[in-house]
């Protein structure tokens, strides 16, 4: 049996009399979600319940819910007023990446600056991943590197197609960043990579010789992984820096 959603009076939510009411309501509801007082997957109050508990019109509540859905925080509950939406984190990364892309394009931030930002963050994460085992007097634990190792193994398939290779490439970089053990690194890198990918597009689909390009990328990934596995942080950081810069420069010349 599904537990009843919390009363919003208990969450300390008050409706202010400034700005568009739907925006204020969405901000208050968002705070209730991201504060952890309601967990992902749990039922959110229905449109009807929110209208009653908040003392605002149905159209205001409906617009507030649409805002939260656009932010990737809610799913469902948008067609039947008695149906409860559910708290969701499934699309928050895409929403954040889209918001970042909008800021980048409006602010005319050069793609080269984004690449340099990625190098700073990913380089630091990979160097930290390589040093993860130094406190124990050895390289990183094998389990921490398992996702990156699996992605690398997928890339080694000589018959691999471009979409599968690209997916493995993404998993490889995510795996190494996650191996640093810092929860913030994968989140920031996920948003940044999505924003950069929107600019670069499906690069491998446009190279003259994709098999040759994938073979080169395979070698570079293997060298990066070997350096991290051996606990050689400075080398790993240097290798990933050259790897990302050379890939970006190749796309910029097209």
Structure write-up:
This protein has 254 residues and is an all-alpha fold. It has two domains: 70 residues, Arc Repressor Mutant, subunit A; 159 residues, GntR ligand-binding domain-like (Four Helix Bundle (Hemerythrin (Met), subunit A)). The protein contains ten helices and two strands, in the order H-H-H-E-E-H-H-H-H-H-H-H. A two-stranded antiparallel sheet has the order 1-2. The longest helix is centred in the middle third of the chain and has 20 residues. The protein is elongated.
Give me some keywords for this one.
254 residues, mainly alpha, Arc Repressor Mutant, subunit A, Four Helix Bundle (Hemerythrin (Met), subunit A), 2 domains, 62% helix
- How would you name the CATH homologous superfamily of the largest domain? GntR ligand-binding domain-like
Determine the mean pLDDT.
80
The side-by-side strand order for the widest beta sheet comes to 1-2
What kind of sheet is the major sheet? 2 strands, antiparallel
| N/C terminus separation | 58 Å
CA radius of gyration: 23 Å
Indicate the overall shape. Answer: elongated
Query: How many individual helices?
Result: 10
Low-confidence stretches: none
**Regarding CATH, which class of the largest domain?**
Mainly Alpha
Work out the count of structural domains.
2
């Amino acid at each position: 049996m599904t537990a009843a959603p919390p009363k919003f009076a208990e969450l300390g939510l008050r409706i202010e009399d400034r700005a568009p009411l739907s925006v204020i309501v969405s901000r208050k509801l968002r705070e209730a979600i991201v504060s952890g007082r309601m967990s992902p997957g749990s039922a959110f109050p229905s449109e009807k319940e929110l209208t009653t508990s908040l003392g605002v019109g149905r159209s205001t509540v409906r617009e507030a819910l649409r805002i939260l859905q656009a932010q990737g925080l809610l799913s469902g509950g948008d067609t039947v007023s008695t149906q409860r939406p559910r708290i969701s984190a499934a699309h928050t990364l895409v929403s954040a990446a889209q918001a970042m892309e909008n800021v980048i394009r409006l602010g005319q931030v050069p793609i080269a600056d984004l690449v340099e930002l990625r190098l700073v963050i990913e380089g630091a994460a990979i160097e930290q991943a390589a040093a993860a085992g130094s406190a124990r007097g050895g390289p990183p634990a094998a389990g921490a590197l398992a996702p990156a190792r699996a992605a690398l193994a997928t890339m080694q398939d000589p018959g691999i197609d471009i979409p599968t290779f690209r997916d493995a490439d993404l998993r490889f970089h995510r795996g190494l960043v996650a191996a640093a053990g810092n929860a913030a690194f994968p989140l920031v890198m996920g948003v940044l990579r999505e924003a950069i990918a929107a600019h670069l597009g499906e690069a491998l689909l446009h190279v003259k010789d994709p098999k040759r390009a994938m073979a080169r990328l395979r070698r570079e990934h293997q060298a990066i992984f070997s350096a991290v596995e051996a606990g050689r942080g400075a080398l790993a950081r240097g290798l990933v820096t050259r790897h990302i810069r050379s890939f970006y420069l190749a796309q910029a010349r097209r």
